[in-house]
Amino acid sequence: MKCYRRMLKIPWIAKRKNTEILKELKVGQDWLLNNIKARKLSYFDHLKRHDSLEKHILEARLEGKRRKGRPIRRWTEDIKEWLQISPTEAGREAQKREVFRRRVREATSTQTCQDE
Length: 116
Known about the structure:
66% of the residues lie in helices and 0% in strands. By secondary structure, the protein is mainly alpha-helical. α3 crosses α6 and α3 packs antiparallel against α7 (97-115). Residues 112-116 have low confidence and may be disordered.
């Protein structure tokens, strides 16, 4: 909502309801989140189909101990959560572009239906 308020140049002290702002922008409540999710899955698809430095970084495993505290949320954990399959299996599906894109459409559309 902070991003939406900035887009409309509404000061933070203005007392306006979030629903009013969403109506003014003519967007659904989770539009921004779903858009980011679709783009992230699309980029994952692109990485898995091409042999690049980014692909090697994404698939790399580091040796040694991690720092103290809560573990950092990994990029592949989002993929696993959204598609309900392992990142390895998602990578295999990404080789078949149409199959993967169908799964992405299903993942983003079911998420909006569950939220409403």
